[in-house]
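Researcher: Next entry: Class II glutamine amidotransferase (Agromyces fucosus).
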Amino acid sequence: MCRWLAYAGEPLQPSLVILDAQHSLVAQALDSPLGAETVNGDGFGFGWYPVGSTEGSIPSIYHSVEPAWNDENLREITDAVESPLFFSHVRAAAGPPIQRTNCHPYRYLNWLFMHNGVIHGFHEMKRDLTFAVDPELYPHILGTTDSEVLFHLALTFGLQGDPVGGMTRAVQFVEETGRKHGIDYPMQGTIALADGATIWAFRYSSEGKSRTLFHSVDIPTLHEMYPDVPRLKLFGQRARVVVSEPLNNLPGAFLEVPESSVAILGSEGYSYEPFMSSAVRA
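Model: Predicted structure:
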């Protein structure tokens, strides 16, 4: 479907991971061994928070319908800025048209959101799902993707005050609506969400076979594991990424995010919570 990357840590030039890594996000756009599609060339997006950002900071975004590997502005921007928290996404369109308003990440106030996956049966459910969006939020839906509707459902169900709870209620609503329409496994994907200080990375599907998702091991551990890899010295002690696929081939450098869980990346590093488990559903 798509590939995405989220970074948090010391401010750095986003091009270091989006473009210059061994298996960068742009490389994954051309060749994605672990993706549902090999090529993800139907547009891309880049969203970044300013240096010194905190919870509530407003991010900037750049979208293009060009393939990521063919857009000179992506190199210009990601070389020119530094950011302590940024998202990037390459798209493989699964039905909705190739247009800028359908490119991730999506933004609402201080929030960024991106999704790799699909709401199966979205066309059958679209009226029910969109009509459940808060009327004050509805005008902010500018594109035609299931992902953007899911984001606004989560906002409707309280994401800003409780990110995990809001996303849980949104996915539960999608699954309940799917069952009404005879769709057994409506939800599929991985989701990234940020508020300017924290990243929430969700991995979930209705049938328990989610898209791939990994996060990097902390930099001090990587220095111990690979003291002779010069590229690792480019990153600060708090630098971490969450990615659809590992950015390099170093064994142990990336860990898989467990199925039906959310990895929360804050100032102290990673923590995990169950997501849409039987305990959460109850």
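Model: Note for the record: The chain has a mean pLDDT of 93.
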